[in-house]
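Q: My collaborator sent me two sequences in one message, no labels, and asked for predicted structures for both. Can we handle them in order? The first one she listed is below.
A: Yes, handling them in the order given. First sequence, followed by its structure tokens:
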Amino acid sequence: MTDTLPRTETVVLDHWMGGGPWAGSSERTGQVFNPALGTVQKEVRFASREDVGEVVDAASAAWLQWRDASIAKRQAVMFAFRELLNARKEELAEILTAEHGKVLSDARGEIARGMEVVEFACGLGHLTKGAYSENVSTDIDVYTLRQPLGVVGIISPFNFPAMVPLWFFSIALAAGNAVVLKPSEKDPTAANWLAALLTEAGLPHGVFNVVHGDKEAVDALLEHPDVRAISFVGSTPIAKYVYETATANGKRVQALGGAKNHMLVLPDADLDLAADAAVNAGFGSAGERCMAISVVLAVDSVADEFVAKVADRMAGLKVGDGTRSCDMGPLITGQHRDKVTSYIDVAGTDGASVVVDGRDVEIDGDENGFWLGPTLIDNVPTSSTVYTDEIFGPVLSVVRVEGYEEGLGIINASRYGNGTAIFTNDGGAARRFQREATVGMIGINVPIPVPVAYHSFGGWKASLFGDAKAYGPHGFEFFTAEKAITSRWLDPSHGGINLGFPQHD
């Protein structure tokens, strides 16, 4: 008998090199899930060390052309890219929802924040201006230039498959570098989509490339002698590894690590505003973001009222498929969901109380999705792993404190220093907090203080390795190298030999 059943072929996502898809030589692949369905929707190729080397070689060759392109030409490409991205952002949002699971409104917000950096990069011409000092010695002038580095590597996380790459490659390209992007293997399609859009915008072939894969691809980028710099966002242990490995191989590195962001609620705060902020910042994107508020430090006198307000708001959240107008979607994988869920088990053992248990949530979606509802845990001891670990999921912990001093002490004792916030109507307390908190990004009645594109993003302590933050002025400095020129054009009457040390006249 002839088999008449329809056959479906597995979709395999290629790498991107030389302006188009490229399979490479490795036969290894990984699975890409739809988290809302719990099903595999495609596979993605995993690059070998040799594949990465071939891509870097292609980028090195293409960079020579892009380096010499005028600022006007680079800006024209970036403007064209911005217009294409704005016109087709809904298409990208659907890709993000299908592979990451975040709801469509959150995906649109991610793209909007990434576009801010694209727009900043469109105006980078004014930052290419060097300094000029005339006649520093007789007939001698000194001036500085900022020039592109060459080939740079970007290793981006699963939680923002579009925004984080946009943070880095927009500025890297505008500054005249070639880029090799290694996105998360969990949701890789956005990277290829962006690569195709850059090609359509007129970027020369080979200037922007994508290699997919796991640790083998990462290590190949960290160790390749022709990769001049590495930009990374991810967990603290991996950020530390990336920083140490890449710097040992002579590279410039910006490695942004994990977080445990605190929100201090003082007795004079608007508790309704604070409760709204805690829910929005704790459960947006299912808590899978490094700027999520994961700990609320509530002063004892208002803690009961605050917890009740948060729990009341949580009851109205709709969890389900991101395409169904829900408030929160699934977690990225079943394995990650199970890890996050394990902390709810730990809470009771450590003496905390689970006020809202996300394991009991009703879902508007397929039962096989990687679901966990918003979870609120009160009276969390600072010794519990629920407090100390970066859970990276929809779990909001409440730690009760006596007042400002105890709350500030807990924040400053944390190994992380990414973001923090204070909710108060006392200007003096807010001013003290912004001066005294040992954290890189601080919100005053703002729960997620991510800076706009013309400032820079990054934390302190174990949340940042190296001293280069992302985008803004730091981003441009990171992707360029300063060169100082000392120049003398001899007057026809000048002459003579003098072997002594140069002297000022």
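Q: And the one she listed second?
A: Here it is, processed independently of the first:
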Amino acid sequence: MQSQSSFRLRQSSLSTLPSHIEIPQYDASKVTTGIVHIGVGGFHRSHEAMYVNNYMNQTGDLSWGICGVGLRDADKKMQDTLVSQDYLYSLVEKHPSGERKVSVIGAICDFMMATENPAAVIDKMSSEDVKIVSLTITEGGYNFDPVTGEFIADNPDVLHDIANPTAPKLVFGYLLAALKARKDAGIKPFTIMSCDNIQHNGDVLKAMVLAYINLVDAAFAQWVEEKVAFPNSMVDRITPATTQDDIAELASLGIEDTWPVVCEPFHQWVIEDDFCHERPAFEQVGAQFVKHVAPYEKLKLRMLNAGHSVLGLVGSLAGFDTIHGSMENTALRDMLGEFMRAEVKPNLDPVGDMDVNEYGQILLARFANPNIKDALSRICLESSAKIPVFLLPTLNDNLANDGNIDISALVLASWAYYSQFHTSQQGKALEVQDQMADELQSAAKGYSEDKLAFLKVRSIFGDLVENPRFTEVYQGYLSKLHEGVPVLDIVETLAPQVSKAS
């Protein structure tokens, strides 16, 4: 039912919002910072900030508010939006039935631009009230070589930060400066918690932080290694980019919000219970604390995230625009199910009492949600950072174990075609956002002289090009694509005949 009028989202308008909209059950103006979060985007606001909001709703403990930090000039838009709305924003859960659940989130209480005042950000992180620094900075923000896993010490921004310790550009310089200040002041260090989709994200973050600090102060690096906790975590919630239609629909429901967040109903957060300072009891609001996260994150990265890339790259070539649209194609849906069953599942570790088959079916249902129009362009952006993390580990396991590789090979062949032409097979322009876009396109264009040219980008593929079993399958698919064979015809040969049999 549409509202006759809508109200601008501010503290003063909360009491006037329609009753179907959930508002904070606490005074959001009294929330204080306990967490500094670097990289406030849609996913952070649909996930960690939602958990903090629900925790404060349940407990009334307002000391765990989030101070957002922007490391890039582009983050200024987020700061301006949140400030204009008293740091409130709307979270819209879109259910498959068409139901919309709208909540106002009050967990964020401040936002600072590191580019404008780095000293103030360091001071904030050094505050005794801050007990956790969390991050969603994407795979690229960790500054590691995707093949070797080593910290990229000659990155110009790293060199800048070493020379300018009070005005760094990267997260590592801020963490170092704040931890040093806390140590000098006799304040316990904060826990550093990655919320990015990287396997062993806490371990990776720790290794990169220590690598940076060792370049600056080896003795202090030893202190950090002994005193600071970097818990691994697994995070999950599909959160597509907000569109103007989402903003207009929300206004029809009663709220004018410049930048709401839309997401699916499902959410999951599995965290290693390894903190060096206090933490909120997030288990009271659905988070799961475990001794070892690795089996959970491996399951999620290899099924959900890799599954997204499967649909994103193959679906884009076929001319689809969204995950949901791709899932409406029976062959693509069946191929994705076969990828999970035949290529991913044999290489997974036991995951507590979780039923992996059921997990896969839940994923297929989530991807098929007709109200989560997750753009394939979003899924495919920065594929050079995603594919080595999400897909290649499964492929390498299957090559080592004589497992199935066909669907993985088709995905990489599709990526090569996508990278060369930046179009679908029908000629529709595809949006390409990737730090390595030029290098990938150059390599892919080498196909006419060398059909394996794309695989020779060793910073992504390592020595994959030297595996004859893989290259034979990959080359076969890529040749068919170049010959004009529709990718969906190839998909038909890979998808099990489930739907046809039924």
